[in-house]
Every structure is written in structure tokens, then in C-alpha cells.
Amino acid sequence: MGPQRAALLQKELGIFTFADLIQHYPFRYDDRTRFFSVREITEEMPHVQVRGRITKMEVVGAHRKKRLVARFTDGTGDIELVWFQGINWTLDKIKPGIDYVVFGKPVRYGSRFSIAHPEVEPSTTANSAGGFLQPVYPLSEKLRARHVDNKVLIKLQQQLQSLAVPHVHETLPSELIRKHRLMEKKEAVQQIHFPKDQQILLQAQTRLKFEELFFIQLRLLKLKLVRQDKFRGFAFSDTTLLTQFYNTQLPFPLTNAQKRVVKEIYADMKSGRQMNRLLQGDVGSGKTIVAFICMLLVIGSDAQAVLMAPTEILAQQHFTNLSRLANAMKLPIALLTGSVKKADRRPLHAALQAGHLKILVGTHALLEEEVKFQRLGLAVIDEQHRFGVAQRSRLWQKNADTYPHVLVMTATPIPRTLAMTLYGDLDVSVIDELPKGRKPIKTIHRFDAHRLQVHGFIREQIALGRQIYIVYPLIDESEKLDLKHLMDGYESITRAFPGVPVSIVHGQMKPEAKDFEMARFVRNETKIMVATTVIEVGVDVPNASVMIIENAERFGLSQLHQLRGRVGRGAEQSYCVLMTGNKLSAEARVRIDTLVRTNNGFEIAEADLKLRGPGDLMGTQQSGVLDLLIADLAKDGDLLKTAREEASELLQNDPSLALPQHAVVRQQIERMKKSVVNWSRIS
Ligand code: ADP
Ligand code: MG
Predict the structure, then answer these.
(1) Atom of ligand 1 nearest to the CA of 288
(2) pTM score, two decimals?
(3) Cβ atoms within 10 A of the Cβ of 496, count?
(4) How many CA atoms lie within 13 A of 80 on its CB side?
(5) Who lines ligand 1 at CB under 6 A?
(6) Of 252, 254, 280, 288, which is best to mutate to test ligand 1, by the most ligand atoms within 8 angstroms of its C-beta?
């Protein structure tokens, strides 16, 4: 390959080496197993492969309608081949009177079929025998524009097979290969590009997916071992405060799930090893009090605790809730966010450094240099996926010698498969039970046409003393238009409910104004809260029992579930009404139906993963972790589980990979370390 094309491959596809190229796997295979005659073609066929000759070529139309049309026949009938782009190039390449193999999607126009931008190759003994699956590779527009198309890639891969395959090493222990009947690596890298048939292709895919997941798990589990070894943690053991809290101040009996989780966390914090634990719990499952109980052990042992939240509103809410508990226990607590004034910060910094201040709640502002603890024993991080890894580690480093224990709380139920991949080096605790007495939220779907009935329902609920949320989505990129949308909604609500006090909260209000409006709603002074998704996280108003979501079809599944979690916090029956237009895409239908069917956050997260794919679910911040070569977290959950079990067993038997039968694994890890591209994928 010439230097210009090589540079293009590097830039567009990140392909620098033979290894990169051979790992540029097809994303699809065209079925070239058989030829059709033109007469057999039907509209249902996704693709057809035909063999014949071009009888006539002409350029028709002008300007934007200009196209090249070729008449193609195989003796049983004729079809048209059409090009809208690359007309000159195609005219140069393709001539009447030569035998061609043509492949593409047939579309009927009147009495004749036509194929737009078909693949056309001179007929050879190799391609006219049929009986193969043709790889289709990921490409960029830029590559195509420079005529590096699928054909070029196929040719490259063919050349590479003879050059590189002899150097491909087995990477899995033979015992594993035998046990799971996996294809050998050498064979797999051949069959993944040029599979003989569907069944062999499946075997090759399984083998390569397993390998990918196995090495990710191996690395994550190894990290965990190393950390357990190396990072001494505080060993906290004084439970006096805890006992006092349990005996005198506990506001409600803990659920069994809460008790179990507290036990797990206490065991970690007493062990002398640094804790790194993910606390998962559906909205309303009561994570806050668990976090507070964990803080008690730390404070009782003369250390401090911090809670970091992703937004100002959420930090504020945590502070309010924790203050109630902390004040009852006479524990000094403070809030630090970006809007705390300089003058107010100084005494706070001093109290923190002297160790008088026991609990600090805040936003990113906590990470600033001046924020120094006397002895930070526990860092609780809420809604972790919104923080980057680098930010988290800055929190860890607030102590010079010993890392604080880390508890990451997430209200987004993360499907097991994802949790295993993303947090494979964390321990996971799950609160899988809601406090008693909660009635499941009733979720209803209504079309916009039935708005009047919904208004009637709102009126009834207000008469019963309840409060209502009405949430509008962010629709446009432009904040101005979104605001207009929200304001229109606000106006029509005030018109429909004269005399009913209405609050409004959106992202462009000043924090003080937001807090003022929130506070009015919390005090039950306003009955309806019109808001954008700023209320998605955290806000807790037990008397609010109805959540109306406008344009529900525009929200993601997990987001809808989060929003719904704002109600159902009190003793009353709560409702969630999903308002949509009449026309729903198939996917939107699935989302709405799923939400109406179930309240189970994990079930919803699984469905979301299937619909959207993992990259979306976690936001771009962590997409690097999920940038898998071949495995698909949404589909390969079982394989991931097996890979994890095997990786774990291997490490248990041979933590340093010293046994001769594990040499292949050790060597592969060395190779991956050298390859920056691979390594960054999973670190
Ligand atoms: P989340 O897990 O969503 O952060 P919170 O910690 O905000 O949930 O708890 C939701 C509500 O449930 C709060 O009002 C809290 O006081 C209450 N709560 C938590 N645990 C219990 C319990 N065991 N029994 C009754 N109410 C509880
Ligand atoms: Mg919470």
C-alpha cells in the first residue's frame, strides 16, 4: 500500500499495523452463496447476486438529477443499474460486452427492477463459483471518496492473510479452548474475514468475543487484586455512634436490603483494605440513609466524610436530608458548592482542616486545591457516571498516605453485564427492595388529544391535596427554543388552572431563583411544578404524587424511569402520565409500553441497553471503556459471564500467571500493553 493510502487508513480507521488491520473485523457479511437469474428477482430480496452483461450505458438527466443508467441482462430478463455519483469513474471502469458479477438491493420501478450503486466486478472463476459470504467492512465517507472502498479492503485483508496469519499466536490456555470448544485463534482470524459458511462464522465470532471479554475481565480482576494488596485502607471499628443512632434517632426501620448493604460496607471499612464499592439502588430505595450510616462509622473513628453530587440542586438536597440526620446526632456538617461565597469558604476550610467539620457535602467545588481534610475517611460519590475517572481520583488523593474508602452511589440501575465490564474492579452492593408501604406507581399512556381528560385528573388530584409535576423535554439544541416550549406549557397550564399556584424551574434560572421556586413547592405553597429535566435527580417531595411527562416519546427509557421516581415517595397512590403525539416510532412504542408495564429499574435498564446500545446509556465519558472490537454488551451477556468466571478462576489458581499452561495469557497481556490502542480501550 502506498504512503498516502496508509496515512488515510491511520487517520480514518486508526489502523497502523498488521495487527490493527487484521482486527478491523467486518460488521456484516453479504450472502454470496448463490446466484439468481433476473427472472427470479422479487421485491422481498434484501440483496441479489446476478451474472451477465451490460448492453447499453447512458447518462441521463441534468444537474442534480444527472445519473448513469446501464441496461444489464443475463438472458432471462433485464434490469437497470444506476449511479448518481462517481459517474465518470464508473464509465471508465465498466464496459458493455464483458461478463460481470453484480450485487445489490433490487427495487422495482414500473415493470423493471433497478439496482442503485451496485457492486460490479468482472466475472472470474473465484467470484462466479458462488458459495461464500463476502465481508463488509466499516469505512468512512472520506475513504470512499478516495476510492478506498470495500473491495480495496477485501483485497488488503486477503493479502494480509498470507502475510500475517502465520504470526498469529494462540492467546487462550488450551484447557479453556477445549472446555468451551472454542475455535483456535489462527483459524478464527481467517474465518472472521472469509467465512466458509454461517456456522463457521458464528464459531469464529464466539471465539474472538470470548477472548476480548476474557482479557478485559482478567485485567479488571487483576487490578482489584493489586489494589487489595497494595492500598492499605483505614480500619475503622468504633461503632458507638452507630449504636447511639440506632437506639435513639433512626427515623424508620431499615429495609432488609438496606441492612444487608450496611453490613457489606461495614465489613469493607473494618477490613483495613481500601474499599471501592458501587452501591446500586433504584430511585427511592433509600441510599441516602445508608450513606449516612456509613459516615457514622468513619466519624466515630475520628475521620471525616464527604459526599459529592453532580449538580448544585442535588448537592443541596443531599445536604438538607443529611443535615436532618447529622443535626440529630450533633455532627457538624457543611455544604460547599460553586455558589458559596469566598468569605464563607475560609472558615469552612479552616474547620475542615482542623477536623472540627465532620461531613462535607458539595459539587465539583470539593475538588479544589484549598479543600483540605484533616483525615478523610470516606468519599461518597453520587451519580458516578457523570464524573470522570480523573475527577474521582483527585478526591482519593486528598489524603497523603492512605486513600479514603470510596462508595459510589448510582440511581441508574446498571445492567449486570455493563456493571461487570465497567466496574469489574469494584465490589457491588444492591438495594433491591423499596421501603414498605410504598404503593407501586401507576403509569398511564395518553395521547395529546386526550389532554382535557388529563387536566380533569390533575384537578381531582389537587382537590385531594396532592401536588403535580409537569415535565418538558429538551427538544432543540437551541436553549432558547426549549425555553419557549416550556414557557408555552406554563402559560397554558396557568390558563387551564386559574387560581392554582404554579411553580416553574428550568436550567437557565439563577440557582437562588431555582431554590426559591423549589422551596415553595416543597412547602406545598404551589400545587403544580412545571419544569425541564433539571428535576430529574434528587428532588424529594413526598406529597407530589403525579408526574406528567410531556412529549414522553422524546425521552430515553432510563430518563423516563428516573423522572417517574420523583413521585411515589409518600404514602398516597402515585401516578405517572406519559403524554405523546399520535405518531410514534416503533422504538418509542417499545419505550412507552415498557414503562407502562414495569416499575422494575433493572428490567428497564436491560430494555434500554437493548434499544440503545451501551455507549449511549453511559454517555460519552466512558465510551472508551465500551469501545469493544467485536463483543456486544447488549447481546453477549452470557459470554461475558462465562469469560468473567473463567478469568476469576484462573487468577484464583494462579494470581501471578506463573504456571506454564498460562504462559500464552501472560504473553498476550505483554503484547496488549505494548499496543497503546488496545490498552486504552480497557483502561
Ligand atoms: P434514593 O435511593 O433515591 O436516594 P432516598 O435516600 O432519597 O432514595 O430515599 C427516598 C425516601 O425514602 C426518603 O424520603 C427517605 O427518607 C425514605 N426512606 C429511606 N429508607 C426508608 C425506610 N427504610 N423506610 C421508610 N422510608 C425510607
Ligand atoms: Mg438520592
Answers:
(1) 6
(2) 0.63
(3) 14
(4) 19
(5) 252, 254-255, 258, 281, 283-289, 411, 435, 540, 569
(6) 288
The CB density around residue 327, as the number of other CB atoms within 10 Å, is 12
Specify whether the CB–CB gap between 245 and 666 falls below 8 A. no
Residue environment code for 17-39, b if the CB has 16+ CB neighbours within 10 A, otherwise e: eebbbbbbbbeebbebeebbebe
- CA–CA separation, 545 and 288 (whole Å): 21
Residue type, 534: V
Which domains does the chain possess?
A: 3-166 (2.40.50.140), 240-431 (3.40.50.300), 442-598 (3.40.50.300)
Strand, helix or coil for residue 644: helix
Residue 448 carries which DSSP code? Answer: G
Name 361's bridge partners. 307, 335
Q: How far is CA 508 from CA 288, 339, 471, 479, 532, in A?
A: 28, 15, 15, 9, 10
* Three-state secondary structure call for residue 392: helix
pLDDT tens-digit series, residues 133-174: 889 898 888 888 888 888 899 999 999 999 999 999 999 999
Distance CA 203, CA 270 (A): 47
State how far the Cα of 265 lies from the Cα of 278, in Å rounded to an integer: 10
CB 101 within 8 A of CB 49: yes
Q: Which residue has the cell 478485559?
A: 216
Q: What is the pLDDT of residues 92-114, one digit of tens each?
A: 989 998 999 999 999 988 888 99
As given in the structure block, the three cell numbers for residue 265 are 460496607
CB neighbours of residue 539 within 10 Å: 21
- Closest to 322 measured CA to CA, from 448, 276, 314, 274: 314
Taking the mean position of all CA atoms in its chain, how far away is CA 523?
36
Whole-number Å distance between alpha carbons of 406 and 317: 21
